[in-house]
What we know:
Oligomer: single chain
CATH class: Alpha Beta
CATH architecture: Alpha-Beta Complex
Number of domains: 1
Amino acid sequence: MGVAKVSLPLPTGEPMGVRIWRVIRDLCETVVLVGTVGEIPEGLHHLKTLPDLRSGRPGPLAGWEALLSSGVASDYLVVPCDLPKVTAALLSLLAAPPPGRAAALKVRRRDRVEPMPLRLPASALREVSAALDRGEHKAGDLLARLDPVEVALPAALEPELFNLNRPADLDDLRK
């Protein structure tokens, strides 16, 4: 898209990363930026940043590994910055199951759990690192092995999982 997603301006002009921070700041004791974030947009300079631990291995699993090995918490709410419609109401569903176990959203019409957003326990680090060591990079495959608590996503909240990955997605968001 020509710019790091964390800095990509939404139709409102607000960078995606700032919007996600505004949504999660009241849900989490600590908010960190993970991975190769590029230029950090104004409004996020106060956040701790965690680079991926493995060079040349971009993607969500490398970010999960960096986060889980950080020691920041015992459970982590993992929210990618490319979910411009996500709300605190949706994310709070992931906090409901008891801590210490992965939790993921079950989307009825897709008949599967979504790999993100999700909640991960620090204890998942070993499995995440092992997957990366084997050359695996698919978040969904790893999540299935973590046997997450499946949290039913109400149909009314499904549109909040709109993911912005291509320039055409940004055009769709503007509609």
